[in-house]
Amino acid sequence: MRFTAFAEKVIDRSKAVSARLGCPFTGTEHLLLAILSEPECAACKLLAARGVTYQVVDRMIPEMSGGSDVSDGVFSVRLRHVIEYASLQADRRGGEIGTEHLLQALSSEDGCTAVKLLSQAGVKPAEIYADAASVINLRPVKHSAAREDGYLRKYGTDLCEAYRRGRLDPCIGRERECDALIDVLCRRTKNAPILLGEAGVGKTAIVEGAAKMLAEDLVPAALRGKTIISVDVASVVSGAKYRGDFEERFRGLINEAISRGDAILFFDEIHTLVGAGAAEGAIDASDMMKVPLGRGMISVIGATTFGEYEKYIEPDPALSRRFTPIPVAEPDNELARRMIEGVRTVYEKHHGVTITSSAIEAAVGLSRRFIKNRYLPDKALDLIDDASCAVSKTGSGTVVTAADVEVALRRRCGGTAVFPASDELRAKLGERILGQKKALDGICAALSRKSAGFCRERGPFASFLFTGPTGSGKTECCRALAETLGRPLLRFDMSEYSEHHSIARLIGSPPGYVGHDDGGQLTRAVFRQPFAVVCLDEADKAHPDILGILLQILEEGELTDGRGRKADMSAAIVILTSNEGSANSAGFIPSQKSADRFFGRELVNRFDSVIGFDRLDDEALRGIIRCRIAALGDVCGIPVEADEDVISAIAESCDKKYGGRGALRAVAELVEAPLASIINISGTERVLLRLCGKDIEVTAVKGLDRSAFLEYNLKNDTAERTDIKNGSNETVCYRRRARLRQRDRGVLL
Asked: How far are the Cα atoms of 238, 328, 683, 700, 705 from residue 731, in angstroms, in the given order?
């Protein structure tokens, strides 16, 4: 360790102070008193400026001396820590240990006696630390020849050198932005451009394009011979264990860039510099750049998004005025295609495949249509990368086609991007939704138009208003549509939102209210699943003010939550269901007129289609009953067989005004209840249903003779067992009966 003359004198005097006070070792309080006894040293002047004098501390020492420090020979353990820290700080700046280093280290040793003395004297240790750091930073950094450009090499990457070695991808279609960047760098002062654009539009690629121009000397004379150094801010911050480590590193970067004169510093995500390394009594990285930037001592390139710029940089006028914004817009389809064509060979070489032009066009078109929360060209390149990886991995070929890109999109979007053909979709929905031919035709026709690309520029992918009586299949159609398309279903029971204040549950509470940071139930769900089928069930039961938020969804395809964030619903299918219009739901036009009266024409006209569901006829009810009985067999794992007479009898007994729900309730009472009491009998091979007068007979059959049916009477609400021998076969039957209900003028008896 090398001490300055003042520092060496202070160390020796601290030993004398401890001896005078009769202490067995020298502690931090003795070092503090020794500093105050040298009025000409820098540390004493700093303390005097804060009102700390020798007399003040000398009076307090008898009360606190040795209270916190532990002996370790001549020096206490804490004093050894102070000297080691001071040595580390001085060594990093290439100088000797001065009293200012000792004072800085002393004020950073939390809990030591000296810090307690300073606090008792009315001075904050953080203020002393900041004062000492400012004196240290005013002195030039002394580097040896071996450490020249050490910080730039350690924390930066030379982009011009990377281009010369072929490590950078080409920059295509950004000539205007590159020229604007070069123009700002040529300025004498405030030569600091900042690229503003959404993530993925190619901000870093523009800087790499400028590095190519510098490497090839395709720049004005003022920039020739210069290079762009990309600084990794995370590496500068990481490992900064002691207070002041980050400042020392960052100042080293700035000083080396100034001394070299040919280095242009590039900070990607430059907003991270605001607050970086800041601690109590310290300044952040952005403050350290203000003076060099304002005087034109260094050239800096920044890149960030519009939102981060407005949040972190724009509020600080002293920082924002030193930068010249250069907006970077998302490219159109043609420019994005050209950009990908420019890097096609790079991806082909990496994956060992051949990428066709049709694959590139499909990646651009499909990503713009179906990946709404990201930007070109990044999202299209990801599809090309995924498709190339899949082709290379399977070994089925070496050519990447549009079909491969489509498969990659399906995987990325959870199988939601591509629609089945209209006839296929109609057939699959028809298997689930019975008796609604006209409604299904309308839904499939609308989705067919959308899948062909005939979409509005704004708004959700598709929007429907389902009207019709209860039990007609509106909600079940939403479920079937989501399952058929492979999309998640987000169902909201709007009867839970009948109060005005419940709108906060959907979109989040406004600032200042409980739950503001949690967001809304609807917006939070759409953030996570933007391709979902959003079903707002029983919309006619919601508060009218809540329906007002649908205007923004249907018109713009987005919904703003209580925190000001916009949930993108442009890829979602939005469906409202309502019982309004059930009295006139036999046709399409009466349903729309009824919907206009209740919801208002302003809202109804924004839907792609208003679909009217008819009241279910007898054939549809029989189909629902037939499907439910078959499903019971799947649940039990045993075939359940029913005659058509049984199906018709159950359909006749149910209340038709409740539609499908009435049919399911009748099956539950007439079939499920007796079936539940005998289904657990060991060895049951099948269950038979037949009509016996006014009863539905449920028989569990065990054995090989399928033609054996026996009559029996119920006794004490338990199943009666009957055994029949038929040659070498034996049939065991367990039976239950349920009496059919008779309807009289719509009233159940």
From this structure: 79, 81, 11, 10, 6
Nearest partner of 247 among 297, 293, 282, 291, judged by Cα: 282
- Mean of pLDDT values over 683-712: 62
Residue ranges and CATH numbers for the domains of the chain are 5-138 (1.10.1780.10), 146-327 (3.40.50.300), 333-412 (1.10.8.60), 422-612 (3.40.50.300), 618-748 (1.10.8.60)
Q: Does 319 have pLDDT greater than 60? A: yes
C-alpha R_g of the chain: 39
**DSSP assignment letter at 117:** H
- Residue 619, SS3? helix
What is residue 295's DSSP assignment? T
Reported in sequence order, the residue ranges of 101-176 that DSSP labels E, i.e. its strands, are 156-158
Cα 303 to chain centroid distance, Å, stands at 21
Report which DSSP code applies to 683: T
Split at pLDDT 50, 70, 90, the class of 412 is confident
pLDDT tens digit sequence for 460-518: 888 898 888 888 888 889 998 888 888 888 998 888 888 877 777 777 766 666 665 66
269: alpha, beta or left? (left if phi > 0; alpha if psi -120 to 50): left
**Gap between the Cα atoms of 64 and 80, Å rounded:** 19
Q: Which residue has the higher pLDDT, 409 or 337?
A: 337
Rounded Cα–Cα distance for residues 681 and 344 (Å): 67
- Least confidently predicted of 23-37, 506-520, 577-591, 709-723: 709-723
Q: Which two tokens stand for residue 413?
A: 């979007």
Q: What is the pLDDT of residue 194?
A: 93
- In this structure, which amino acid lies at residue 149? D
Task: Tell me if the pTM is above 0.90.
Answer: no
Residue 72 and residue 80 in contact, taking contact as beta carbons nearer than 8 Å = yes
Distance of CA 67 to CAs 30, 113, 550, Å? Answer: 12, 7, 69
Q: What is the mean pLDDT of the chain?
A: 77
How much helix, strand and coil, in percent to the nearest 5, is found in the chain?
50, 15, 35
| DSSP symbols for 323-370 | -EEEE-PPP-HHHHHHHHHHTHHHHHHHHT-EE-HHHHHHHHHHHHHH
- Cα torsion 672, 675, 679, 681 to 10°: value is 160
